[in-house]
Each structure stands twice: as C-alpha cells, then as structure tokens.
C-alpha cells in the first residue's frame, strides 16, 4: 500500500521526537523496551498470562503465524512470541507501539478463525512507523556518512539486516 509523503515525514518526525523525549539523538539506538516503559506499557510472552487457558498458551508457543499483539491499551500490554530473534522481537514490539502512537483502533477477532480482523491501511502505517522507530532516516544518514555497512547498521540499531534494507529502500539512503 502506498503511503503519502506527508505521512512518511510525520513518521520520521515521531521517531526522532520519541528519541528526544528519552534524551537520545536520532542516531542513537532506541530499544523497544525503553519506548514501552516510556509509554507505561509491558510486554509478556503467552506463558506469563495467568488467565490465559493452558491450551491457548500451548498453541501460541507452538505457532509460527504470529509475532505480537496488543492485549490491552489501558494499561498497555503486549503479548509477544518468545521464539523470535532479538532483532525480530524489536521489530515486532515497535510495530505494536506504532499502532498505539498512531492511535489506531483496536481490532476484533474473526469468530470463525480466531485471527485478528486487521485493517490493511493501519497495518501498512504501523509497518512504516515501526521501521522509523527502529531506524530513523536521520540515523540511517548518520550511519551512511560514517561508511557503515548494513551489518553494522543492524548491530547498532538492534535491527535485522532485512529491516536495514527496508529502511534503506524506503528512505533512499544508500549504505556501503
């Protein structure tokens, strides 16, 4: 889905603003957990939900078709897949935090499949802002100016090389 230039600029501004509020520069890493704490939220794997039926916990721990999801907005609580890599975990949390920052409405669930009824527009927006939160354009420019490779950028920002490539493609900032 094509997102408007104004929306993309707004996302870049949000990513930098969130860093400034945490006394960070645009080129500083922003671990998702720091942003989550700032937003007075918490993230847990499924087996840390006392009220979740054991069969649901077992299913979520075995399933590979999900990453993370918002359980409650007040207080903010996110469930995440504990088997994902650290870089994927960061991306998953940033995506969910992007939904909150963009004030997207909570979605319901399909009664037949049990899967969330996702809004494609909201998902595309959260993907974009989540990427900006992980690696702002200004941070990518900073790294490019220092001759960083995609591997070095990924390590610096706690991201995957796939996320670095995504952000490079989205921003037009080329790396060595």
**What is the gyration radius calculated from CA atoms?**
17 Å
Give the uncertain stretches in residue-range form. Answer: none
Kindly state the number of beta strands: 3
Distance between the termini: 28 Å
Order of helices and strands: HHEHEEHHHHH
Average predicted local confidence, pLDDT? 94
The tally of helices reads 8
Q: Which structural class fits the helix and strand makeup?
A: mainly alpha
Helix content: 40-55%
Percent in strands:
5-15%
Task: Name the strands of the widest sheet in spatial order.
Answer: 1-3-2
User: Major β-sheet, in short?
Assistant: 3 strands, mixed
Q: Based on Cα principal axes, name the global outline.
A: globular
């Amino acid at each position: 889905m094509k997102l408007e230039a104004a929306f993309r600029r707004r996302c870049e501004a949000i990513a930098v603003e969130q860093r400034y509020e945490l006394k960070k520069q645009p080129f500083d890493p922003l671990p998702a957990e720091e942003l989550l704490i700032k937003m007075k939220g918490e993230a847990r794997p499924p087996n840390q939900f006392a009220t979740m039926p054991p069969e649901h916990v077992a299913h979520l721990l075995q399933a590979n078709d999900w990453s993370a999801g918002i359980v409650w907005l007040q207080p903010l609580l996110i469930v995440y897949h504990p088997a994902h890599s650290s870089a994927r975990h960061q991306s998953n949390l940033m995506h969910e935090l992007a939904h909150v920052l963009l004030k997207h409405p909570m979605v319901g669930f399909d009664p037949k499949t049990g899967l969330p009824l996702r809004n494609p527009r909201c998902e595309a927006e959260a993907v974009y802002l989540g990427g900006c939160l992980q690696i702002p354009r200004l941070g990518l420019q900073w790294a490019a100016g220092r001759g960083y490779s995609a591997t070095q950028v990924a390590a610096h920002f706690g991201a995957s090389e796939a996320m670095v490539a995504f952000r490079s493609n989205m921003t037009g900032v080329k790396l060595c």
